[in-house]
Design brief:
Order of helices and strands of chain A: HHHHH
Shape of chain B: globular
Largest sheet of chain B: 9 strands, antiparallel
Largest sheet of chain A: none
Radius of gyration of chain B: 22 Å
Mean pLDDT of chain A: 88
Radius of gyration of chain A: 22 Å
Strand content of chain A: under 5%
Number of domains of chain A: 1
Strand order of the largest sheet of chain B: 4-5-6-7-20-19-21-17-18
Structural class of chain B: alpha+beta
Low-confidence stretches of chain B: 43-81
Distance between the termini of chain B: 70 Å
Number of helices of chain A: 5
Mean pLDDT of chain B: 86
Helix content of chain B: 10-25%
Largest interface: A-B, 22 and 27 residues
Strand content of chain B: 25-35%
Oligomer: heterodimer
Chain lengths: 140, 328
């Protein structure tokens, strides 16, 4: 819940920054700047609110680090790309934001899925063991 | 300490992300990289004369004490005869180059038009800031024009702001990386204009076809005497009223340089379609939009004619990569 709220605040900040930047850019606009808030909103606030409402466990520490870093990189990259577009310039190094950002997000998601499967497998094992011991006790 | 250890990843990654963003900002806007020096243009009749007669001193023009302006003389080999020039605040005529400046007031905007008639296509030139091709190599239009000995100049396409798009200047190919959906203005050695798509024409082929200048900004405003942009076609950024710079050809060796002021209370600025309509009204056959906004500058005989501004608050020239100019 707390993580979702932080992401929501970041989304609002990005939306405000984008609107202010557009205000002073003499009618020149960039979708990257306008929609930079979408990364922390759709990639941060929404999934963490969902996890919190459904009572699901949050991913482990390492996948979380990767995921947060990925969303942060994509948000900064989107704002920076917007600045360049509004100025009318390009830089091939902006690709680094997208490559690193999406890779980290993917690592975070994969880490989360693997972590959940492991936990699921462990709890199944425990359940089976518990069932077996219950069965043995009844036979005795 | 516990907090720092707990958030070590976040702190380190934030520092890394900030450092990369600072570096990429410096790389885009500040760090200057010269890729090639432009060949020195022989700008004066005197230079050639001085070299021939073994004189060490050579200047690009002599000072006219009565008007305080530079006198420009014809290039050696083009005409041996030195023509009498007539210079006024809004006109210049020396027989080889004729320029008339007119200020219009349309669309709530101050529009400056330089009508140019040349005796040779060689007098329509371009020049780089610091006479060098590179990234973030810039200077104000008037400074580049003075260095090039230009009589009249406008800002060019600011090629240095992008890393794609053809750059051919004064017959030399500097960049042959095509940009997608990019239409260029080609100025051929006979002074004619052409509009090409970079995706369909190779830079080397253009050079072989006689291209002397290729300007990569756009879009084309007028093609074959008809407006080629419309309000419906315009992307959002083009709808805004802004300072604009455009170049057009009316007839053989008859050109117009057009600069509009904008972003001020006195002058709103033009949209691309308004600029195209205005250019069509000047009877141009081909017209092309160059870098605008704070870059838009018109220089004539040692003075900046328009009111260049980036934000509307302060009037002043913005540094640019290149200019299009008239001179010997």
């Amino acid at each position: 819940m707390k993580t979702g709220l932080v992401y929501l605040c970041i989304s609002l900040l990005c939306a405000w920054f984008g609107a202010m930047y557009e205000q002073f850019s003499h009618g020149v606009f960039s979708y990257y700047m306008i929609y930079s808030f979408a990364f922390p909103l759709a990639g941060g606030a929404l999934p963490f609110f969902l996890l919190s409402f459904r009572g699901g466990r949050t991913p482990g520490r390492l996948p979380l680090h990767f995921y947060h870093s990925g969303v942060a990189t994509l948000t900064v990259g989107s704002i920076f790309q917007g600045v360049l577009e509004i100025y009318g310039t390009t830089n091939p190094l902006t690709r680094v934001y997208w490559i690193v950002g999406w890779s980290f997000v993917l690592c975070g998601i994969v880490g989360f899925v693997i972590g959940r499967r492991r936990k699921f497998a462990v709890s199944k094992k425990k359940e089976k063991a518990a069932d077996a011991s219950r069965h043995e006790n009844r036979e005795v | 300490m516990k907090f720092f250890r707990r958030h070590l990843w976040a702190v380190l990654y934030s520092v890394l992300l900030a450092a990369f963003t600072v570096y990429i900002s410096l790389d885009t806007f500040v760090i200057s990289r010269v890729y090639a020096e432009a060949p020195q243009a022989d700008t004066s009749y005197e230079n050639a004369e001085a070299e021939e007669s073994g004189e060490a001193e050579g200047t690009s023009g002599e000072s006219d004490s009565s008007s305080g302006r530079k006198k420009h003389k014809k290039k050696s080999g083009v005409s041996e005869e030195e023509e009498t020039e007539t210079v006024a605040d809004s006109s210049y005529n020396d027989g080889g180059i004729s320029i008339t400046l007119t200020e219009y007031r349309e669309y709530d905007t101050a529009i400056y038009v330089a009508d140019i008639v040349l005796s040779s296509a060689e007098y329509l030139k371009t020049a780089f800031a610091q006479n060098a091709y590179g990234r973030n190599v810039t200077a104000i239009t008037s400074e580049i024009a003075e260095d090039a000995g230009a009589i009249l100049a406008i800002n060019g396409d600011y090629y240095g702001a992008r890393q794609q798009g053809y750059v051919i200047r004064n017959g030399v190919l500097y960049r042959d990386t095509a940009a997608s959906d990019q239409e260029d203005l080609v100025i051929y050695d006979d002074g004619t204009f052409g509009i090409i798509s970079e995706e369909e024409s190779a830079a080397q082929a253009l050079l072989e076809d006689g291209a002397v200048q290729v300007l990569s900004f756009g879009p084309a405003l007028v093609v074959d005497g008809a407006i080629s942009v419309s309000e419906g076609d315009e992307v959002g950024k083009a709808k805004a009223s802004n300072p604009r710079t455009a170049i057009g050809v009316i007839d053989d060796l008859h050109y117009v340089f057009v600069v509009s002021d904008g972003r001020t209370e006195e002058s709103e600025g033009l949209s691309l379609s308004e600029l195209a309509e205005f250019m069509e009204g000047l009877d141009v056959q081909t017209a092309y939009n160059l870098d605008g906004g704070g870059s838009s500058t018109l220089y004539f005989n040692g003075e900046v004619i328009n009111q260049p501004t980036t934000n509307g608050k302060k009037i002043g020239e913005r540094s640019v990569s290149d200019i299009v100019c008239i001179g010997y």
